């Protein structure tokens, strides 16, 4: 049995959510990659990754670190009025985690989650986990898959970089499914709408946004962290006296020529006791459409701590817990007869009690 067939998750009762969760599919190439890469591992040595030091691989989008002028946004604060009209909210998140190492590469697992919200009722659908072995023997195959979908990656890229880009590719597949099968909805992405060599290709994001516009969808991308600064402070830490909910636009800023900003950047705060977040909105839609989309979001969605509840749930359902990682490690070892190697801490071996700090 395959790992993806063994893990079953129940969902909450269905309501009239467009589209139906079972209609969302991943390309067979991803499943084939998972299967073939694991079958070729049979009988090899496997060193499980230490769960305590395991952190999900983020599908990071590049951001500019440059400070910008005060007048760029000081007069553009927009108060918001929640609009409750039953607009469907759809949130997407994807995560990747390193499971362990083999003699020839690394074992990782990918998982995606989509959460639908309508009239504050929620359902979700999870894809995965998909375990994948990335090593020297199939590195060219994985790179070919990425390049075939316009993800730039060189043959000299390290395996972790390939893992991150593979996670980004899975995310774009899910986003394409949702954007093309939904209509008149607000679609929430985790991250930004910045494209570049180390993130998502500009053409891919542009295509997704175009499909969304054609189907009357609006994409809102929330970032939990931002490197953009104003007068030495992160833009999400700028204190404004005006009571929320509000957004203010961050004006035009100098970016690296290799980066493409496909959305207008805002700072959003929806609750008095909540946080502020970077919010990117498709720059090809009008200002009125942007404001209307945000007002419909806060009118139809729970925004605990100013963060959309459906996006919070998507993160929870996509993220791997320590127990799940241990379970996947055990399953792979049993199913493919892997010979386990005890994890070693080189820093402790070399430095004893002084071997502290980040692990290599």
Could you characterize the architecture of this molecule?
The protein has 360 residues and is of the alpha+beta class. The chain has one domain (3-343). Helix content is 29%, strand content 24%. The chain is built from nine helices and 15 strands. Strand 4 (105-118) and strand 5 (121-135) form a beta hairpin. The two termini are 34 Å apart.
Describe the SSE topology.
Layout: H1 3-6, H2 28-39, E1 45-48, E2 77-79, E3 89-102, E4 105-118, E5 121-135, H3 139-148, H4 159-181, E6 186-190, E7 194-195, H5 202-214, E8 218-223, E9 229-230, E10 233-234, E11 246-249, E12 260-261, E13 263-269, E14 277-282, H6 287-300, H7 309-318, H8 322-335, E15 339-340, H9 346-351
Parallel strand pairs: 1-15, 3-6, 6-8
Antiparallel strand pairs: 1-3, 2-11, 3-4, 4-5, 7-12, 8-14, 9-10, 11-13, 13-14
What is the helix content?
25-40%
Report the average pLDDT across residues. Answer: 82
* Gap from first CA to last CA: 34 Å
Give the domain tally.
1
Which structural class best describes the helix and strand composition?
Answer: alpha+beta
Report the major sheet. 11 strands, mixed
Annotation, overall tally of beta strands: 15
Q: What integer value in Å does the Rg equal?
A: 21 Å
Q: How many helical stretches? A: 9
Summary of the model, kept short:
This protein is an alpha+beta fold and 360 residues long. Helices cover 29% and strands 24% of the residues.
